[in-house]
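Section 5: illustrative case.
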């Protein structure tokens, strides 16, 4: 008996060592020499030391080829388990590129799907480290079947537990779809790549018009496709960014986000804001600086910084509590809303609403961007997404109008009419159907044309001033109850902190329905 027990123990240790080596020491060293880490290297970088508990380490594929099993590799090319990040429990998995190029076979996919299901049941966040060449051809339709189960589990988890994807190598085919189902996708700058179609099958790559990085590299997905919320300088940086994003999120959709202690007093005056916004309504300024002046310790984690940069989104804190920030960016396209900006903000609003994160909107918007490209591209449908997302959100919604709030864009940016909870404006704000210059040109066209040329400009300026006083002044909106108050810029932080504090107990009821039909 003792001998048998010793043999079994040796067999267990041997198999564990096989699992640890993945596709073999030679392949692992080749991966490291290319500047990438192995699956276990990456997990060790991500989680707290000594906290990782591996699951399904002995799973292998069950594919046959002409009656013969393919090379067995314990773990089947993915390391999965749970651990902690800064003491918070998470589930995580990492694809092992040393095993069949990280390709996703049936059991590989089922192993991840099982982990995702466990995370959903225990209500813990999921972080996936992706580095694989798509679905494994050797497994045939079985690979697609397993991948389908994984995709279903990821969709079921959406909005229930936070999901973060780290793309640290080439990820191809349906695996790219799976990675992009996460709430936040971070790509490694040098090696992170996402392709739905392999570069080897893409005509532009074959003909030399573009390389693989230009087709699906990190910078492309950060600036053009809008998939990458952040770019990591290296793999360690990617893990740090994931931990930072996670620090703003709750464990699940029934929990509140973590509260961080801050020494930044809520009564702090924002005197710099009095001069930050130019008196000339046509001059640009940086809305990020406005946000950083107001939030705790000046820390604003901006997401999708290079994509649709006429709008800013990201996480910050007020009195230690997480907020989701949405703001127009006057220094890009004058802060106009376009197709990409609408999509970017709408997705983020729905993410915050899923995880009980209050929304604070910083508004300076002259309208939707005009033009044939926008109209033909569906700005009506995409702009409606933004409006829909704000109206549907049930978390506390606060809006600060710093300058312009015109027309349909005013309505789409969390206005009082969409049941925003607390809306205030600075005295410099203008709330109107359109800018005074444009409105006067339409309303008083005949009147201006009737006066001598030398008097036109004087008459025009007088009419503009009258229009601003009658329609654009923030006190007009305040008199009608469409603003809760007009405040001095230096009061911005304390007013938002007070409002957020009282709105913490907000609960909203709506008639039962399966779900809304957002204009996708």
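Designed sequence:
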């Amino acid at each position: 008996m003792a001998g048998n027990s010793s043999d079994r123990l040796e067999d267990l240790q041997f198999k564990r060592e096989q699992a640890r080596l993945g596709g073999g020491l030679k392949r692992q060293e080749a991966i490291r020499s290319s500047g990438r880490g192995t699956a276990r290297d990456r997990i060790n970088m991500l989680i707290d030391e000594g906290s990782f508990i591996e699951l399904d380490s002995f799973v292998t594929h069950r594919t046959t080829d002409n009656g013969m099993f393919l090379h067995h590799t314990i773990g089947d090319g993915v390391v999965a388990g749970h651990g902690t990040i800064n003491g918070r429990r998470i589930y995580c998995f990492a694809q092992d590129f040393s095993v069949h190029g990280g390709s996703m076979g049936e059991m590989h996919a089922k192993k991840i799907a099982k982990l995702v299901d466990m995370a959903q049941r225990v209500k813990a966040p999921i972080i996936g480290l992706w580095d694989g060449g798509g679905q494994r051809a050797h497994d045939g339709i079985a690979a697609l079947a397993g991948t389908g189960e994984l995709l279903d589990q990821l969709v079921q988890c959406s909005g229930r537990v936070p999901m973060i994807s780290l793309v640290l190598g080439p990820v191809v085919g349906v695996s790219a779809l799976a990675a992009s189902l996460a709430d936040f996708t971070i790509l490694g700058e040098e090696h992170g790549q996402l392709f739905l179609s392999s570069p080897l099958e893409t005509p532009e790559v074959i003909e030399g018009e573009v390389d693989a990085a230009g087709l699906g590299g990190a910078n492309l997905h950060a600036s053009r496709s809008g998939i990458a919320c952040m770019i990591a300088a290296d793999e360690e940086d990617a893990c740090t960014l994931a931990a930072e994003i996670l620090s703003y999120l709750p464990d699940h959709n029934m929990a509140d986000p973590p509260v961080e202690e801050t020494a930044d007093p809520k009564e702090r005056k924002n005197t710099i804001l009095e001069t930050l916004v130019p008196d000339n309504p046509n001059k640009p300024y940086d809305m990020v600086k406005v946000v950083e002046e107001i939030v705790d310790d000046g820390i604003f984690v901006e997401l999708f910084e290079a994509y649709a940069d006429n709008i800013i989104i990201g996480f910050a804190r007020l009195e230690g509590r997480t907020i989701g920030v949405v703001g127009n960016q006057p220094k890009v396209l004058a802060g106009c809303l376009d197709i990409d900006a609408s999509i970017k903000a709408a997705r983020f609003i729905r993410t915050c609403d899923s995880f009980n994160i209050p929304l604070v909107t910083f508004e300076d918007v002259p309208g939707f961007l005009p033009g044939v490209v926008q109209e033909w591209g569906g700005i009506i449908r995409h702009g409606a997404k933004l409006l829909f997302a704000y109206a549907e959100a049930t978390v506390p919604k606060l809006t600060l109008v710093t300058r312009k709030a015109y027309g349909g864009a005013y309505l789409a940016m969390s206005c009082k009419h969409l049941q925003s909870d607390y809306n205030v404006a600075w005295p410099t704000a203008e709330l109107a159907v359109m800018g005074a210059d444009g409105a006067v040109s339409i309303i008083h066209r005949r009147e201006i044309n009737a006066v001598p040329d030398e008097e036109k400009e004087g008459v025009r300026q007088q009419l503009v001033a009258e229009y601003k006083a009658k329609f654009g002044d923030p006190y007009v909106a305040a008199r009608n109850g469409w603003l809760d108050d007009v405040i001095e810029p230096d009061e911005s932080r304390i007013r938002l902190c007070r409002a957020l504090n009282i709105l913490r107990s907000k609960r909203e009821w709506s008639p039962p329905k399966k779900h809304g039909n957002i204009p996708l």
